[in-house]
Every structure is written in C-alpha cells, then in structure tokens.
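Our example copied in:
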Amino acid sequence: MRSEEQLHLYLTADIPGTGGVIKETPEDFLVAEIPLYQPCGEGEHTYATIEKRGVTTLEAVRRIARAVNVSDRDIGYAGMKDAKGVTRQTVSIPRVAPERLLPLELPGVVVLSAIPHRNKLKLGHLAGNRFRIRVRGAAEDALERAEAVLAVLRVRGVPNCFGAQRYGAQGNSHLIGRALLIMDYKSAVDAIIGDPAKVNDERWRSAIEAYLHGDLEESLRLFPAHCRPERDMLQRLVKQPGSFEKALHAIHPRLKKLYLSAFQSFLFDQVLEKRFDAFDRVMAGDLAWKHDNGACFLVEDEGAEALRAEQIQISPTGPMFGYRMKLPQGKQLELEEELLRGEGLTPESFNLSGGMKLEGERRPLRVPLEEPRVTQDGAGLVLEFSLPKGSYATSVLREIMKVN
C-alpha cells in the first residue's frame, strides 16, 4: 500500500502551474465555516463562534473545556480544521451561559459570539467553507495561469480528493487506521510513535529512536509534552511491555476515528485516481450524487443524466467504505470490490466493536467551485472561493500551483 499522496493527475495538466508557497504566515490561509443553520437563541447548548490560530480544532476544544470545566467530549463541532492558518468555526458547549464564554481569551482561541441553541452541534452540520488564501513567490504570469485553471474548475468541477494533508504530519494516519481495522495493534502503536526521519525536532527524533531500540522509559522521558497520544501509550507500555492493545486504549476515541477515516479517505483517493478520466461523467451502474441535497440514486440510463452531470447538478460517487455502505453496480462495483480484495478486506471488516463501527457512505468524485476570485498584489496571488463541506482547499490549490 502506497503511503504517499494518491492523486498524481491534473485536470488542468495543459495549463502550467503558478508555483509558489502557502501558509508562510497564519494570515495567509483564512477559512470561515458557512453554517448550515443559525442558533435559535434558546436551549441548554451555547453555540460559540471562535477564531483560532496555531491550534487544531481538537486542541481548541480541549482549551475551552478546561476553561469552563466541562468534558471535551461534550463539546460539539461541525468540522475539523488544522493548526496552520486562521479559522473561524462554531463549537457548542453544554450548560455554559454565553456570558461565561464571551470574555474568554485563551492561547490561540478567541470567542467572537455566543448564542444559545437546543441541540449539540454535530460533525457535518455546516454548508461549506469560504477560503481566502495567499500564494507567495508565484510565477510572473501567475494571475493569468490561475484564472485559466479556475475557468476549467468552474465548468468541470473540482476533483474531490483528500490528498496528503488528510494523512497527518508524517503522512501515515491511514496506515494507523488500516492497522486498527485489521487489529494489528503493534503496527498501530509503531505508526503512531512514528518515523524519526519524518520529524525535525531533535528531541522528538531521539524519543522515536529510543522506542525503536526498545528503551521505553527513555522514549517517554524524551517525548515532547505536546505529543500526548505517544506519551499516553508509552506510560502504559512501560507498566506492561508488549500490551499494545491496552496501550491503544489510551488514545482518544475521536483520534482513533480520525485514523480509521484516513484509511477510508486513502481508499477513496485510489478510486478517484482510477476513475480520473471520467470523474465528471456518470455511467450506468453509478451511484450519482445530487449536489442540491446530498441524496444518491442509481444511474440506469447515462444518456438521460448527461445534461445534469454537465451542469454539475449530479456527479458520480466513490466509496467511503463501511459495512452498510450502498453499493454501485456494473464496472464501478467491480472496481471497488477489487480494491477491497487487494487490502484483504470485505465490507464486514468495517463492522468494528468498541464504538468504532464504520457504516460507510458515498462521496462525490467532484464538487462545484463557488464564487472563485483571484487577484494579485505586491505580496502575491490572493485566491478566494467556497467549497461544500467535506472538501479541501488543497484540491483547488494543487491544480493552480502544481507543486507538492
């Protein structure tokens, strides 16, 4: 199984990339959630819109939880955002009044608004995200190149790949997920501890090397404080060497779900790569995605659906594998079954115990690009666009920049 980014093809291969770099400063990458609904103004949950920089969503949740003395598991959020950039997103906190939240100014987290609502915010309860991204150091004619790429993406849609950022800082989150799925607990722990060649911090690298040499106590001593999953597992392994399954009990269930989801994402990217030449065309046997409401239906006559596909009203889907996922027919079913067989898995393999069940779902192979805009100033390109929930800005950037 390859651990690198899966999608090596470009929809706009005939248009040169702009080159350049992103995220040189947090302000170079701004993302704001587009809410699915507004809080109603009453109820036991408070919907707090936060602005965070330099921290992940899970870390922001932990900091808020500690500040108001609630369990971080009781705090809801609609989407996961990484640490690099400035993010505005909403979280829900139970049984905490808005007036307690509004004055909070935590490291990397500021509360912008707080309004009561009746229910906890659930993952996926957002319409999409609006991005404003600066590309520095781009080619001299970058504006023209970016405009040409955006024109294609607006007509054909954006390949809905996950790409390298979905697989974690060391590019191996999907490998951890696969190991959990097949119950290879030692491999899962090894992958979480990591590869010393993929970290820059000398102390961190030494901690991994100590683990690889079997010196668990020294590894625990050396691991930086921010490496919580690694330290929590090592504390258990020091007490019970070789008890890898028990060591994994120290990992937060949300993080385990992220690892498993990363493996689902890895498999989806492989399907998209195999289907790339026809990622915007529905075929007989496809389960097509309706972009207006997220419903799926079986395509029986591809000719009858060609116009809707051309207008990006519908798109073919790929698998986020699970034991209850709806299956396509024909050649698409053969492709997906062959991929699972190659991993030694069946749909029932995803029916895990301990709250880790993966029911599965369909995901569109492309998404519409909304309100794209590109300008240029003395500091570089400025890209603005919106994408539906679950899609990644990097899917747009890889087409424009054409760099790793």
In short: Residues 14 and 301 are 32 Å apart (CA to CA).
